[in-house]
Design goal:
Blueprint (H helix, E strand, L loop, with lengths): L11 E6 L10 E7 L6 E5 L11 H9 L3 E5 L18 H5 L10 H15 L4 E6 L1 H12 L4 E7 L13 H8 L6 H15 L8 H14 L5 H11 L4 H5 L5 E6 L7 H10 L5 E6 L6 H6 L32 E3 L15 E3 L12 E3 L3 E2 L2 E2 L3 E3 L4 H7 L4
Parallel strand pairs: 3-4, 3-5, 5-6, 6-7, 7-8
Antiparallel strand pairs: 1-2, 2-4, 9-10, 11-14, 12-13
Helix pairs in contact: 3-4, 6-7
Length: 393
């Protein structure tokens, strides 16, 4: 049962020490929880160099209001979790050239961190939601530990095939440029980077962006972990085949104008993830999945259940299947297999969507028994609607 805002409480902050990983690293993770531990758990995994603050508090509270125990955490080498600065630095040039030997850890190790966190919480299965690098970790977790995932949501990410999801030169240069040490200059630089990698159509409120960047800098200004996380991305194997074996309900979100991980990364993830209930959506503008959700703007009564003749979308929308560029399409698959279920395609009007990272989505749930029941449309980007309707996956 969804909760009201009056039931909200302060997030609870914890630290947990994990068992040594395969290289003997001892990792401590800092994490926060929202909501009741009696509710289904939704694990939020953040991206490259980002802290748990990247999942904005309002977003987490809304999900908790809808009946989830929400867990956000700092990955290793970010925020207030363990920084692995005691060993040799990775040789990124060699890793980019195909020699992964100097990477201190892989995405599979970061996925094991998440599993260790779930173990510490006493959670057997959870909804796994990851953005950017977090999406890669989430994909790897569901591939390596399929029994631990109620569902997978991969946001603005890619499958690691080496050909999809490239950055624009400007975004790549912004992310790789040295950061100033002086606080005021570092904050201004951080704001500038967010403007570059943010949505062209839905720029973030200036005051909110400044407050977020300032809070993140003051909480942890270290950037030395980014190279090690980047090494893990490029040293890890392609997840394409593994995604084809995923059977958990899966949602892929990506922005058509994402400059940091190009739209092709989301396309590749959606096409190659043959899991039960795969859905995909794209909207002009990328990066800030929370904006539509945290903005709280919905258009009630505008849920469309349409077939092939569905409503046309606005200019700038994109179809991840590549067949109807003027429309958004979500293709829900009833089970592992080579192709979509054409009788259950759904098209809808993305006009209510306010956010760019948030993106309109389709809910591929209501699957049970011997067949798949009717899929429901969600407007605009309410991940929680999908999860609330079927918290047990």
């Amino acid at each position: 049962m969804p909760r009201t805002e009056t039931n909200r409480a302060e997030p609870v902050t914890h630290r947990v020490e994990l068992a040594p990983d395969r290289a003997g690293h001892r990792i401590e993770l800092e994490y926060q929880t929202f909501g009741s531990p009696e509710d289904p758990t939704l694990l939020l995994v953040m991206g490259l160099g980002a802290q748990l603050l990247g999942w904005r508090r309002g977003f987490c509270e809304l999900l908790a209001d809808r009946g989830f125990q929400v867990v956000r955490y700092d990955n290793r080498d970010s925020g207030r979790s363990t920084f692995l600065d005691g060993g040799p630095e990775p040789d990124l040039g060699a890793i980019f050239g195909g020699d992964p030997g100097s990477a201190p850890y892989l995405l599979s190790d970061m996925a094991l961190d998440a599993i260790g966190l779930l173990d510490a919480l006493g959670v057997d299965r959870a909804h796994i939601v990851g953005a950017s690098l977090g999406g890669m970790i989430a994909q790897q977790l569901v591939i390596d530990h399929p029994g631990r995932a109620l569902s997978l949501c991969s946001i603005m990410s890619r499958p690691g095939d080496g050909v999809s999801g490239d950055s624009t030169p400007e975004a790549g240069a912004a992310m790789s440029a040295p950061r100033p040490q002086e606080r005021a200059e570092a904050i201004e630089t951080g704001i500038g980077i967010w403007r570059i990698i943010g949505s062209p159509d839905y720029p973030e409120d200036e005051a909110e962006l400044r407050a977020y960047v300032t809070e993140a800098h003051d909480r942890c200004s270290r950037r030395d972990g980014v190279a090690r996380q980047l090494a893990a991305i490029f040293a890890s194997p392609d997840r394409t085949q593994g995604l084809g074996r995923v059977t958990a309900p899966t949602l892929v979100l990506h922005g058509e104008a994402d400059p940091l991980i190009g739209r092709s990364g989301g396309e590749a993830t959606a096409r190659r993830g043959a899991g039960r209930g795969t859905a995909a959506a794209a909207r002009h503008g990328a990066r800030r999945a929370e904006a539509a959700v945290a903005g709280g703007r919905r258009r009630a009564g505008r849920q469309h259940r349409t077939g092939r003749g569905g409503r046309r979308g606005r200019r700038g929308t994109a179809d991840l299947t590549g067949r109807h560029p003027a429309r958004l399409r979500a293709e829900a698959r009833p089970g592992p297999g080579p192709g979509p279920d054409p009788g259950r395609d759904r098209l809808w009007d993305p006009a209510p969507a306010r956010a760019c990272r948030g993106l309109p989505i389709a809910c591929p749930h209501r699957q049970g028994g011997q067949g798949s029941r009717e899929r429901q449309q969600v407007q605009p980007a309410w991940l929680s609607d999908c999860l609330t309707d079927h918290p047990q996956g």
